Amino acid sequence: METTNITSAILTTEELLEAWQGHRRLTRRVIEALPEDKLFNYSIGGMRPFAEMAMELITIAAPGVEGAATGEWKEFGEIQTPEGIKGTTETKDELLELWDWTTEKIEEFWPQIPEERFQEYDVAFGQYEGKIWWHIFYFIDNEIHHRGQGYVYLRSLGIEPPFFWERK
Amino acid sequence: METTNITSAILTTEELLEAWQGHRRLTRRVIEALPEDKLFNYSIGGMRPFAEMAMELITIAAPGVEGAATGEWKEFGEIQTPEGIKGTTETKDELLELWDWTTEKIEEFWPQIPEERFQEYDVAFGQYEGKIWWHIFYFIDNEIHHRGQGYVYLRSLGIEPPFFWERK
């Protein structure tokens, strides 16, 4: 009889997906909370407006989860985007539409990531070497990082940010 | 013969520890990068100075990892702190000393968390119900969130923040 080392899972893939989507729901609220002109033009210390940060997150998330699933790391422009948007947004509605499109892409590709794949090494976007779990964590951590910056933008504008713990 | 569902681990407990400590090394660099007076007094939009955010992280991390390991959720003041510090800091050196003490506490208690414990529910600090992995992720995510805010403080002061991807 073969024996196998059973490793307890810290968390399941479904739980990790839900944690990520929970963060994404919170980030969506930050986009919603910023007045449209501030979303695209407001900056502190020469940093990017929050719309540009959100676009960075979008351009990482959808091709990133596809790369994790398939091993093919495409650029954002190479994957199908909602008609009429094509990777640039000029209004809050367009940005939110692209955000929600990304949510669907994540839901579509996530179940296609084989469980053992999280421990495999891959070169994400042809540039970054690491295990798949690390890449996914990086996507999430980078979002939390920029969203925290969005909180400062909101506070400096006198706008109450959403509760950090609210992820529904 | 009993059969057991073998779940592939997304990541190992050692990898999660290293990811956390990597984030903590980066946060330490943000503390170091802020001039001492700005660390304790500078604020945007009525938010707390970064020293207060860092103290929040310290008061969560050490008792948090002990709670994850033992099921006993103590307040920060109840656990042993370095002599002469007692949970308040007035200088950058004191804050960094307490940060490094926390690093050691995490290293001490982390290996005492049983692997299966990450999937157990517990009420962290007597208030927050969730699985242990969720609590640990919350500690880490909360740190990334506040550190992102520290980056805005730095940028607004004309100081280049450390690279986000540098975790050594």
Principal-axis shape of chain A equals globular
Helical content of chain A stands at: 40-55%
Instruction: Give the tally of β-strands of chain A.
Output: 2
Measured between the Cα atoms of the first and last residue of chain A, the distance is 46 Å
Global mean pLDDT of chain A: 92
Extract low-pLDDT stretches of chain A.
Answer: none
Largest sheet of chain A at a glance?
2 strands, antiparallel
Structural class by secondary-structure content of chain A: mainly alpha
Oligomer: homodimer
Strand content of chain A: under 5%
Widest sheet, order of strands of chain A: 1-2
What is the string of helix and strand elements of chain A? Answer: HHHHEEH
Tally of DSSP helical segments of chain A: 5
Radius of gyration of chain A: 17 Å
Biggest chain-to-chain interface with counts: A-B, 45 and 45 residues
